[in-house]
Amino acid sequence: MIITVTLNPALDKTVEIPHFSLDTVNRITAWRIDPGGKGLNVSKALAKLGGVSTAVGVLGGASGRRIADAIQELGVEGRFTFTEGETRTNIKAVDPENHTNTELNEPGLTVSSAVLDRMRADLVEMLCPGDLVVLAGSLPQGASADTYGVWTAACRAAGARVFLDADGEALAHGLAAKPYLVKPNDHELSRLVGRTLTTADELLAAARELIAGGVERVVVSMGRDGALFVSADSAYRAEGISVPVGSTVGAGDSMVAALVFAAEQGMSEADTIRLAIAASAANVMCSGSQAAERSAVDALLPRVLFRRIDTGIH
User: Fold this and answer.
1) I need a surface site. Which of 116, 168, 172, 173 has the fewest CB within 10 A?
2) Is the pTM higher than 0.85?
3) Per annotation, catalytic residue among 117, 253, 298, 310
C-alpha cells in the first residue's frame, strides 16, 4: 500500500498572464483550480500512472472541503482530518510569453500538536510491513520542526519505507530518522549542506554524504538538466527532456510518484530512471498542477537518456 501525507495542502489557482509585470495591472487570460500540496500531487500522479494510494492530510473550511471532494473525484481515497481555519489558496502565475512561473503561497493552517499526534497515530495504525509512505511538502504553522523526523521514525518502526520530499529544517530533521529515499532538488540540497552546489559532481558528492548518513537512496532533481539517482552501490546521471512548458508546478512531485510506483512494482533501476524522468517531463507539459496522463509519460520513455557515472549512455 502507498500512503501520501500532506500536512500543508492548498488549493492551487493557476493563472496565465502574458507579459506579467510588477507595479501595473495584469490581465488574466486563463485559469484553473486544482487540489494541491506535494503529497496530494504525488497521489494525483500515481493515479494517472496506474497506481493506487491513500491520501492523508489536514484540511480546513470550505477550501478544504473542495480539496477533499476533488481528490475523491480523481479516484484517490482521502483520509483527511478537518480542523479549525481555512486551507490556504496558492497562486501560480504563468507568463507564456516570457516563459516564467511565479508562485505566491499562503502560509496555511495552524495545526496543534495534539491534532498532529493523533494523525500520526492513525497513520501508524494503517501501516503494514512493506508499505510505502510519502512525506512531502512544507509543515503547517504550529508544527514542530522535527515533525518529519518523528513521523519517519514511527513509520519505519511499523515496517514501512519512507520517501521524503521536504526542504530546510523539515528535511534536516527527517534525514536524522533515516528515510528510505529523499528527493531534494539542487537548491534544496545546497541549503541542506550549507554551500552552493553548482555542478553535477558537487551535487553527487553531497548526495553521497546523505547515503553515508543512512539514507538508502537519494534522487537529486536538477530541472531541465535532469537528475541524479544515487545509492550505496551506484550513481546515475539522467539527462533532461526538452518539452513544451505548460507549468513547472508539480514536476518534482510527479518524479516522486514515479519513484514510489516503481518501488511498489519492483521495477529495475533502469526502468525506474526512465519512468521518473518521463513522468516529470510530461507533467511540465500540463497546465496548473494537474498530473499528466500515462500515455503522455509512455510517449517520452524512449527519449530518456542516462548513464552510470563511469560508463556510457544507455
Assistant:
1) 168
2) yes
3) 253
